[in-house]
Design goal:
This protein is mainly alpha-helical and about 210 residues long. Helices cover about 65% and strands about 5% of the residues. Helix 2 packs antiparallel against helix 3.
Length: about 210
């Protein structure tokens, strides 16, 4: 007997079409890992005026430059590759919140490194060059002195706290979608092998005996 597939059964190709591209996924998780690494380093360096604090700051700076570079790549990719649409089951106001959150992420991912770079370039005290993979990143051609470095420092610190808050809200929203709404939204931004595991978490056990 010839097996006739059920027309309504989703295929792997359909499921893949609802996911972000592999490049977008790689950029997302790379930037996320770098942000989660550099935030505590920056906070530790700002709170400790000693060799350990300076070392944390010296590591913090090139990571920020890398985040800036990857964010520019990600924005370029986003402009040329349309992301998968949100589910029609998602409420309109939640879609707007998601869009606003994504815009805020992009703004912070650009302005945080730039303000830190500005601050490092403008401080009137001894400046520590930003070394990235053996290359020395030049200072920005900005006015040197506290009238220039001070506002950049305040902007950098305040946006750092805003980034922490946004990351927490983003994680909580993703967990809510996955385990309360059970719409498998995490599968959109995870590799196929991982997204399959998330999908299995949403399956209810078969009670048929």
């Amino acid at each position: 007997m010839t097996h006739v597939p059920t027309p309504s059964a989703p295929t792997d190709q359909t499921a893949y079409a609802e996911r972000y591209s592999n490049v977008a996924i790689a950029l997302h998780w790379s930037i996320a890992a770098l942000v989660l690494t550099t935030l505590p380093l920056g906070m530790f360096g700002a709170a400790n005026d000693n060799p350990a604090g300076q070392l944390a700051t010296d590591i913090h700076k090139p990571i920020g430059i890398l985040i800036l570079a990857l964010t520019l790549v990600r924005i370029g990719w986003r402009l040329t590759h349309r992301p998968p649409p949100l589910s029609d089951a998602c409420a309109t106001h939640l879609k707007w919140i998601a869009r606003v959150a994504h815009v805020l992420f992009y703004v912070l991912l650009l302005l945080l490194p730039l303000s830190g770079w500005w601050m490092s370039s403008a401080v009137p005290i001894e400046r520590h060059p930003i070394n990235f993979a053996g290359l020395e990143i030049p200072f920005l051609p900005v006015p040197r002195g506290w009238p220039s470095a001070g506002p950049a420092r305040m902007m950098h610190g305040n946006m750092g706290w805003l980034m922490i808050g946004l990351v927490v809200l983003h994680v909580l929203a993703a967990l809510r979608h996955q385990f309360i709404d059970k719409d498998n939204i995490l599968a959109r931004m995870t590799p196929p092998a991982v997204s399959g595991k998330f999908s299995n978490l949403l399956k209810t056990p078969n009670r048929d005996s």
